[in-house]
What we know:
By secondary structure, the chain is an alpha/beta fold. It has 21 helices and 16 strands.
Amino acid sequence: xxAILTKIREQASRVQPSIxxxxxxxxxxxxxxxxxxxxxxxxxxxxxxxxxxxAKNGKLHNVDNGTANxxxxxxxxxxxxxxxxxxxxxxxxxxxxxxxxxxxxxxxHIPGLNLEFxxxxxxxxxxxxxxxxxxxxxxxxxxxxxxxxxxxxSIYVASLEGSIVKHIVQKDMRRFAMLLLQWFGIAIPATFxxxxxxxxxxxxxxxxxxxxxxxxxxxxxxNQTYYRVANLDxxxxxxxxxxxxDVSVFTQSVAHLYSSLTKPCFDLLLIVLTLATYSNKMxxxxxxxxxxxxxxxxxxxQLLRLLxxxxxxxxxxxxxxxANLRHVHARLIAHAxxxxxxxxxxxxxxxxxxxxxxxxxxxxxxxxKKLWYVMLEQFCMKYVWSGTGMVMxxxxxxxxxxxxxxxxxxxxxxxxxxxxxxxxxxxxxAIERLMSSYKEIVTLAGYATRxxxxxxxxxxxARGRCVRAVHVQPHAAFQVTFRxxxxxxxxxxxxxxxxxxxxxxxxxxxxxxxxxxAGVSLDIAPGTHLLIVGPNGCGKSSLFRIVSGLWPVWxxxxxxxxxxxxxxxxxDGGAPAGYCTSRPIMxxxxxxPYMSQGSLIDQVTYPSRAAAGDAAAxxxxxxxxxxxxxDAAAxxxGGLWAVRDWRATLSGGEKQRMAMARxxxxxxxxxxxxxxxxAVSMETEVVMYEEAVKEGITLLSITHRxxxxxxxxxxxxxxxxxxxxxxxxxxxxxxxxxxxSIAPPTNNNNNNNNNTTDDQQQQQH
Length: 765
Ligand SMILES: Nc1ncnc2c1ncn2[C@@H]1O[C@H](COP(=O)(O)OP(=O)(O)OP(=O)(O)O)[C@@H](O)[C@H]1O
C-alpha cells in the first residue's frame, strides 16, 4: 500500500504541472473557440423597443433636411433660441419624408453579441477614447498596468505558498518564518493594487461617461434637437433617461468589462507560461490535458450559448420600462397641482402602478431566466470542469505502467503540487470569469444599443432628418409635394436685410403633414403690429413656429432677416446684418412661460444671465419689475437675488408678467406674443402693451382680448376651416373669429394667395 501511494505521489508530481498547463492552454483555446463562434449572424428585427411601437400606430416617416447654401437657410427665427440663425446651422428646408417601415435610419436588431454590437461599440469607443494622447488612454494604461501587476502578484503568491508548504514539509522553521514575513509583506502592495484597480475602473467609467455626455449634449443642443427629438421625431422616448441613466450604466459596464476580460486574459497567459516552465522541468505530457480541456470547454460553451436567454434584448427592454416609470413620476410632479385640483390621483396611481407592474414583470422574467441559466452555468463550470480536471489528473497516474524516479524530494513535489494547484485554480477562475462575462457582454449590448441609437437619432435630427408618423390627407388648396413616394417641403427661405418678414403662399402644415391653412401671404416690417386671431387649432401658434424656424416651410417663400454672424450677436441671440445690436430679432412669449432655475433676476434676464452683483442689470431688472407690477411679489419672495422654485412660487399671472419683463429686458425687434397675457389683469396688460410699443418692439400677438387690439396696425384672421384674411386693422370695427365674408376653400385658392400684400391691400382667402 505505501508503495502504491509513493508511486501515485511520484506520478502526481509529474502529471500535475502538465495537467495544469493542459487545462490552461486548453481552456484558453476553448474560450477563443467558444467566443469566436457566438452570434455572428445579423439578428432579425424585433419590436422590443418602444420607439418602434409608436411607429406601428401609423406610418413612420422621416423628415430630412439638407445643407444650407446661398441665400436660403433652415433657421429663420434669428431669436435667442435658434442656433440655425446664428450661422451654425447646417440644415435648409429640403426635407424628405420617407416611409420609415422601409428605411429605418436606426436599424432594428436584437441587442446581443453580434456584428451590429461590435459596430456600435467601435463607434462609441471612438467617442470615449478620442486619441492615443487622451486622458482616457492614460487611465486605461494605468489600469492595465495594475491588472498586469495583480496577475504577477497572484503568481508570486502562489509560488510563495508552494515554498511555504515545502519548508513546512522540510520542518525548516527559519525559512518558513522568513517566507511567512515575505507573504505578509506582499499583502501591502497586493491590497494597494486591488484598491487601485477599483479606483481606476471608477475613474475610467466616469471619463468615458463625460466624453459620451459631452458628445450627446453637443448634438442635443445643436439646431434645437432637444425640441425636434420630442416634437418632430418619434424614435426616442424619454431622452432624459438615456442621457443620464443609460449612459451611466453603459460606461460602468464597459469599464467593468474591460477589467473582467483583461485580468483573466493576463491570468491565463502568465499562468500558462508559468505552468509550461514547471512542466518542462518535470518533463510532463503537454498534449492530453489541452485536448480534453478543449473538447469539454467547447461543448459546455456551445451548450451555454444555445440555452442562454437574450440578455441584451431583456436589458434594453428593462431600461425602457425604467425610463417609462420615471417619466410617469416626472409628469405627476410637473402637474401635481392640476392633478390635486382635479382629484385625479386614482388615474395617476393606476398609471404608476401599471408602469411599475410592467417593470416588475419584466424583472421577474429576467430573474427566472437567470435562475435556470446560472444553474446550468454553475453546473458546467464548477462540476463538469472539476470532474474533467479529476479525470485528467487520474488518467496518467492510473494508466502509468511503471514508476519513474526523477530524484525530486517529497518536499519539492509538495511545493509543485501546491503551486500548480493554486495556479490551476486561478486559471479555472479566469476561465469562469471569461465565460460569465458573456452575460455581461450581452447585457452591455442592450445599453450600447440604447446609447448608440440615441446618438444616431440626435445626429440625424440635428441635421434635420426626423422620423415620425404622418397622415397625408388631400387638401384643396395645398398639396404636399411627393418625390419617390416621399413628401418634400418645397418652401424657400430667403434672407432680408431690412428687418422685414414676408410670407408668400406659405402653407401652415403640421409635422404630421396636416394642412391647417394654405397660401398665407403677408408683409411685416418693424412698426407693423400684427394681431392674429382665429378659433382654437386654426394654426395661429403654428405660424409662429414656422416663422421661428421650428417647423419646415412646405411651400411658398419665407423672407426673414439675415442673422448677423458676429460673435457678439451670436451670443446675444443673433441680430440681422446691418443691425448689429444686442437686440434679438424675435422673442417668443408663450401662454405658460418657462421659469428657469436660479434667482429672480435670472428669470428676468433669461436666456442671458446677469453676473452676481451686477448693479446695472439689477437696476434695470428692478425698473422692469415695477413696470410689470411684480415689485411687490419680488420683495415678498426675498428680492432679486433670491433663489426659489419660481415655477411653483409664482402664480400663473405673475409668471406671465415675468415673461413680459423678460421681453422688456431684451427689447427684441419682434415680440411673438402667444396669448401670453391671458391671466394678467386687463389694466396691467394695457400698460404692458403700451410700454412695448413705446420701446419700439413690434408686436405679433395672438390674443382673444379686444382691449389690446388697438395696439395693432394689421390683423391676420383665420376662420378655422383653412381660410384666412390679412388686412390693415380698422380700430373702430370689430374683428370676429368667424369671418362671414370668407369663401369656402377652393382648388384655386392657392393661386389667389400669390398676390403681393401691402399695407393698403386687404386679402381674403
Ligand atoms: N407637434 C405637433 N404635431 C402634430 N400636429 C400638431 C403639433 N402641434 C400642433 N399640431 C396641430 O396643428 C394644429 C394647429 O395648432 P396650433 O397650435 O397652431 O393652434 P392654435 O391656432 O394656436 O390654437 P389655440 O388657440 O388653441 O392655441 C392643431 O390641429 C394641432 O393639433
